[in-house]
Amino acid sequence: MKNLLIILALLAGLFACDNTPTTEVEGGEATSAPHEEGDENRVELTKAQYETAGIATGLVTERSLSGTVVANGVIDTPPQNLVSISAPYGGFVRSTDLLQGKRVRKGQVVATIENPDLIKMQQDYLETASQLEYAELELARQTELSRENVNARKVLQQATADAKTQKARLAGLKGRLQIAGISPKSFADGNLVTRFPVVSPISGSVTVVNVNLGMYVNPTDVMFEIVDTEHLHVEISVFEDDVPKIKIGQTIRFTLSNDPAKQHLAKVYLINQKINEDRTVRIHGHLDHDDHGMLPNNFVRAVIETGASPVPALPEEAIVDFEGRPYIFVRADSADNRTFEMVEVARGVTENGYAQVTLPKDFDRSREVVMKGAYALLSKLKNSEEEGEGH
């Protein structure tokens, strides 16, 4: 790097002393060449400048470089890891101690609801259980009489139907009570309850609390939202033109918006088969390692490694940065072949001394590109602009 700076300094001095383009005439003497005003991207060298700069040219070639796709996305949770908790039956909230950010365990009671209608449900259960007991005794009696040909077959059929009906009704009432977390054993002695617990179906963190003590809730009301952040994934939006490059199993490197210095890894797991209205496709990635520092909806900037593929490429030294943009120099049509034009390009992945370039659509691939000496031409171009401003 130090040697390059020294060479550029020497070239700048040479160009400053001999800034006026010259052409050779018969007899070997140099005369001033006319300068084209307004052509800010062209640079013309004298023979001495050309030889000192060590210009070497070549053509843009195809090289196999590791391709990448740059995209944005968010950290997301699987549907099974995000739950909205509601009460199975309406009622008044009598207890809850949840706050946003609090951790809960699977099966933990998160609230207690009071509903007087529970008394009627338990009463119906006890009455039905008693009726079923009677129906089963009657069925047994009619079955015995039927064996002795004492009663009519119709009576036995009716007893069988009554027993089945009571059994089905009891099972239905038991199921309704179990939905509320009430076991028939808890009121078998006649001590009916008016409150039932609401439990968390997963372990995770509370993100939403919509209730307070004394509030009436309906079965359709969302009381709490809980998210399990143990198994997050990354959702990336890729433009439709880049989708053919994406394959299952490719590596995703991404950073979080709130921690850009730390890089995370994931793998492409699913590719959506639908193009969204903004002409993007969702890519679902699984993290290589769970990170408890991530939060759902964290914004991410991702790079998907698409593997080696032939792309237009040039040596790194052929690409110069000018005012924050990448450029190359191409040989312009001239009698002495010492005139060059600066062309803006887009720079891609860099590997083994070569960089991917995206050329202008109308670029002629047969034009010679400066492979060596591009920074010398840039120095000459800058020097010419400064001289022009001085005049």
Automatic annotation (TrEMBL):
Gene3D superfamilies: 2.40.30.170, 2.40.420.20, 2.40.50.100. GO terms for biological process: copper ion export; plasma membrane copper ion transport. Transmembrane segments: none annotated. One of its GO terms (molecular function) is transmembrane transporter activity. Pfam families: BSH_CzcB. InterPro entries: BSH_CzcB-like, MFP_Cation_Efflux, RND_pump_MFP. Residues 1-18 form the signal peptide. It comes from the Bacteria. Residues 83-228 form the CzcB-like barrel-sandwich hybrid domain. GO terms for cellular component: cell envelope; membrane. Keywords: Signal, Transport. Belongs to the membrane fusion protein (MFP) (TC 8.A.1) family. This is Cobalt-zinc-cadmium efflux system membrane fusion protein. It comes from Rhabdobacter roseus.
